[in-house]
Design goal:
Number of helices: 10
Shape: globular
Pathway: Carbohydrate acid metabolism
Strand content: 5-15%
CATH topology: TIM Barrel
Family: Belongs to the KHG/KDPG aldolase family.
Structural class: alpha/beta
Number of strands: 9
Strand order of the largest sheet: 3-2-1-9
Pfam families: Aldolase
Largest sheet: 4 strands, parallel
Keywords: Carbohydrate metabolism, Lyase
Protein name: 2-dehydro-3-deoxyphosphogluconate aldolase/4-hydroxy-2-oxoglutarate aldolase
Helix content: 40-55%
Length: 216
């Protein structure tokens, strides 16, 4: 397994918020609100022009939060993200070229997979922790159970359609080490700058995971 592992990174709060940030100010306030609610890692996705600047700002202004990058699709994005200070790397997909670039950084990484062929490619590269995305659209926990029965050495982080309502069914499966989602950072709360509400949603998520016995 690659070291450091992604599961080690999120063992204290095995939930990975997916943050689409439109401004540095939002990124800093949201990160503080998440951390206050008990979530210690956050993934800022490359879906806005300021994403890399947001990573830089969170590293500087919210150093207690472990911040990484998501939606990586090219080796250049990997290089740029590391330069911006990303502490972990997440991709929605897996190719040998992209995964190799991610591996070379030495950072915890999570490539996206949904099929046996993609998982086999990950294993050929020494990767045993993968993102399952988009989770609900590809069959959710039922598909993960089927994949885990064949690939028992692989651990999954389902993302896409995961919510407080279905956390239990995901974490009931031992092949799942974390989940990703954005339900604790809804767009309306960010638009209204309701950081306390984001903290409350984060607390609820962590409390639910503790109840399931899945926090270190």
């Amino acid at each position: 397994m690659l070291k450091p592992s992604f599961s080690d990174l999120v063992k204290n709060s095995p939930i990975l918020p997916v943050l689409h940030m439109e401004s540095i100010e939002e990124a800093v306030h949201v990160s503080r609100a998440l951390y206050k609610g008990g979530i210690t890692c956050a993934e800022i996705v490359l879906r806005s022009p300021v994403a890399l600047d947001c990573i830089k700002a969170v590293r500087k202004q919210v150093p207690e939060m472990t911040v990484g990058v998501g939606t990586l699709t090219t080796p250049k994005q990997v290089i740029d993200s590391v330069a911006a200070g990303a502490q972990f790397l997440v991709s929605p997909s897996l190719t040998r070229t992209l995964a190799t670039a991610m591996i070379k950084t030495g950072l915890p990484m999570l490539p996206g997979t949904v099929s046996p062929s993609e998982i086999t490619q990950a294993l050929e590269l020494g990767i045993t922790e993968v993102k399952f995305f988009p989770a609900e659209q590809y069959g959710g926990i039922k598909t993960i159970k089927a994949l885990a029965s064949v690939f028992s050495q692989v651990k999954f982080c389902p993302t896409g359609g995961v919510s407080l309502d279905n956390l239990g069914e995901y974490f009931a499966n031992d092949s799942i080490f974390a989940v990703g989602g954005s339900w604790m950072v809804p767009k309306d709360l960010i638009a209204n700058k309701d950081w306390d509400a984001i903290t409350l949603l984060s607390e609820q998520a962590i409390a639910a995971i503790h109840k399931l016995g899945r926090c270190a």
